[in-house]
Amino acid sequence: MKIIHAQIHIWSQTVTPPSGLHRKVEKFTAEEALREMDEAGVDAALIHPPYSWDPTSNQLALAAAQRYPDRFAVMGQFELDDPESRKRIVGWRNQPGMMGLRWALLYPDQQKALHEGKLDWVWPAAEKEGIPVATMAGLFLKPFRTIAEAHPRLKLIIDHCGLLRLEKDEAAFGNLDELCALAKLPNVAVMATGAPGYSTHPYPFKNLHDGLHRIFDAYGPDRFFWGTDITRMPCSYRQCVTMFTEELPWLKGQDLEKVMGRGLSKWIGWNYEFD
């Protein structure tokens, strides 16, 4: 079974310090990522440029995808408040290796812009261009539902499991009912990224399994994608893999293959060679 990792960051500089949850290193290169991927048995990965602390990370990610086209693809981003960005979104996927767009939208100014409607131009533009968009919508599920309902042809991804970002254990699943209800919208998917980071328990983080099962049951194997965000995980890369491939008795066979890469590839239009 080939495995595609739904979220990894690489960076070449730290203009501002990385998120408090990430490794405190000046850089994390594509080559370093590949070494760790090989050790963990991961075949390919979707790079999410950490633009907030490395403004060059978009170009870095594209260069990695072009240098290693069988190992990397990109969910890029641009400044949402730059008037030129409205032009950049046209033909965005024409860049080799570029699959879509991703903004965490977790900073106060971004949240304010979202709630004030200043980002309302993004969703129809991405829908028109056929660009999948990922975001940490667990922080704002109500406006996210409004966006998803208004743009049914826009493929949307809720990353980091859609859970409450800074919570742990049972508290992290505080929005689980609302998250699962969103599964009724066929244009919404969930990246099960960063799951171990929500637990204070040791591997295999069994206190998360029931909650993950509920999300899987709601979205199904075609809209539930494995990933790690490895530079902020409390366990090894390999354990992030085996938590899903060996420790979840309800995830087997074709469903497992979809969750571990095939579903993501189809959702974002990455023509990855699985066979």
Please describe what this structure looks like.
Strands 1-2-3-4-5-6-7-8 form an eight-stranded parallel beta sheet, sandwiched between helices. Helix 1 crosses helix 9. The protein is of the alpha/beta class. The termini are close together. It contains ten helices and eight strands. Strand 3, helix 3 and strand 4 form a beta-alpha-beta unit. The mean pLDDT is 95.
Amino-to-carboxy terminus distance: 9 Å
CATH top level class name: Alpha Beta
The H-level CATH homologous superfamily, spelled out, is: Metal-dependent hydrolases
User: Biggest sheet, strands in spatial order?
Assistant: 1-2-3-4-5-6-7-8
H/E order of the elements? EHEHEHEHHEHEHEHEHH
Number of domain units: 1
Radius of gyration: 17 Å
**CATH fold assignment:** TIM Barrel
User: What is the arithmetic mean of pLDDT?
Assistant: 95
Compact overview of the structure:
The protein has 275 residues and is an alpha/beta fold. The chain has helices at residues 30-40, 57-67, 85-88, 108-115, 122-129, 141-150, 176-181, 209-219, 237-245, 253-268, and strands at 4-8, 44-47, 72-76, 98-102, 133-135, 156-158, 188-192, 224-226.
